Fold each of these.
Amino acid sequence: MDNKPGKGGPLEEFTSRPRLCIAIAVHDLAVTRRFYEDTLGCRVVDERAAGLTIDFFGCELDARLVATDSAPVPHALPRFGLVMGWEDWHRAVDHLNYIGVRYLEAPRFDARGTPDERAEFCIADPSGNCLGFAAWRVKRI
């Protein structure tokens, strides 16, 4: 795929280059944190009761806490997608709404009005793979 400026590639639409985001299920946040920080040398950039956001060598790793005896929610895990610029995320939502895309997880906001404000939505590809798109109001990674 050719993403050079002026060639009409998909990156031409973004005002800033998006980063890859991968979501995984984890059973223990403390153990997960120690592994990614101490073993791999990664940095936790956000911690909440339900998970960790980890700078995984320039990609965003969203480690979500799940019970060991529960099955993952189909559209929550596993998934991959992009962490986008705040304005690009809003433009993407406007475009998807305009063309009538059905959401697995409708656009939503967490921690509104705080420095931790995050926007997110999920859609499915034709095979049912979940793609998540997120943006932080304040850049994290």
Note: The first helix runs from residue 29 to 39.
Amino acid sequence: MSDAVIFAVIFVGFFILRAVAATIFFYYILPQGDRCPNCDAVTLRVQSRGWRLLMPHVRPSWCFECNWHGLLRDGPLTPVAPSPQLTKQP
């Protein structure tokens, strides 16, 4: 093999390795669960088919209190008490 081909293979290999390492690193610094990283309020799940197909363990979320939007890792969800209007007996 020529030196140019060896250089190209090594260069492309390092580029791909860097992209994989960055993806893994940024995945683990994403917050886990359904709490907003800015104000610690419960976020709403935003339906996005593209993110679910590309990265199934990440969910796009939106905080209606501070207007933050971003990605969160799947994790424990905050339990929500049922509304008194729904639980009152007739």
Note: Residues 39 and 82 are 23 Å apart (CA to CA).
Amino acid sequence: MKTICIAGFGAVCENAHIPVIKELRENYILKGIFDVDKERRKKASEICKVNVYDDLLQMLEKEKPNCLVITTPPSSHKDIILKAIERGIDVLCEKPLVTNLEDFKEIQKFVNKTSRIVYTVHNWIYSPHIIEIKKFIDEIGSVRRINWETLRKKPSQSASANWRVDPKISGGGIIFDHGWHVIYIMRSFIGKSFTDVNPFFLMNENGIDEVADFRIEYGDVVSDIHLSWRSPIRKNIMTAYGDGGILVFDDEKIYIYKENGEVKEYFFNEKMSQSSAHPIWTKNVYIDFYNSFKNREKFEKNFDEALECIMIIEKAYEKYKQRKTHKLHN
């Protein structure tokens, strides 16, 4: 049994984390919730029937939890993580874990020093859609190329403020919001570390990428990714090309077209893009987080995934800025 506290009671916490914690009561007991917003604290108290706090350190000192769940906006993650680690508390943190590589390395230094766990919520890997794709993808032979599209009409709205469109809080635009998920999914499909990134962004007036197109190279395998907050529809689409066939995923359907002419179909009960909370997916994150205390390799795999996510995103931004600077000088 692990005692836990929560930092941040936004929409994702209320709709995904709290139902999971209640369901996994044999593994977790919730002791307290911190939020800077008075109305959110009131709602947290009504829903969860636990102590609520407007001071993070006061909560950690009074409740003395084994673990801290962080569901605050991204810019606050590093400082909260370090405060928890310093007090011997393990961490489960919403993605993106951090907004730059320097912050990751600082956390990594403390993790290595203390042997604490800092686990990132990579919940899309547990969606039934990704699980089934991973089962079927071997049928098309060696994968040579994957195209992925995440199409949204606009950024998701949080419970108290739309921080996703403020780069000082979010770290960036849709590449942080949705690209982070796609990057660790691609790693799970391809099974290699990336070798290069080639980006293109469409920015709004605030310097936020509302459209991100980027190619990730994994040696001789490539992944072309398109992310949009400007789409007329909401959808997730993927096409994987192997040397023995093609796999097409269209939100709630999988089609496999084999070299010999055979066609297979698989249908889901709901679209992958249907929800933004995903409590069922998040439940498996909590289970793996709990198991990582006995099997540290689970944590190390997750931590490596988070490192690759921030490395690819930071490199994509750097290359984009370099390209813009080069154009200005020419």
Note: The chain has a mean pLDDT of 94.
Amino acid sequence: MAITSAICTSFKQQLLVGTHNFTNGGNSFKLALYTSSATLGAGSTVFVTTGQASGTNYTTGGSALTNVTPFATGTTGVCDFNDLTFSNATITARGCLIYNDTQGDKAVAAVDFGGDKTSTAGDFTVVFPSPTATGAIIRLA
């Protein structure tokens, strides 16, 4: 069992057939937290509860991502999101899955945090990298 950072292969194919709509007012995307017992990566196809984190002020399925902003930077398409905070949470997570809540919970990207991250009665914040051609969490070169 492991979490490997990757854009999900099924997501790449689904982009080609127009499954996902990242425009403002389009589809709703969520982020769910997972423990080290989860298996997530390029082969993930949908949101699953197996290995999902649990704790105070964390709801199964995670939370909605806001300010979903796709744009081009040079020759690379990227998507940015606002950082996501689970307030006053007691939780431990090793990674997360971004998924399309509108389109049958289809997986978009798996992210390995590089180690367990913990909050105890405090904010658990997922900070997204700068939306650059080399740093954005979702980027198509």
Note: The two ends are 29 Å apart (CA to CA).
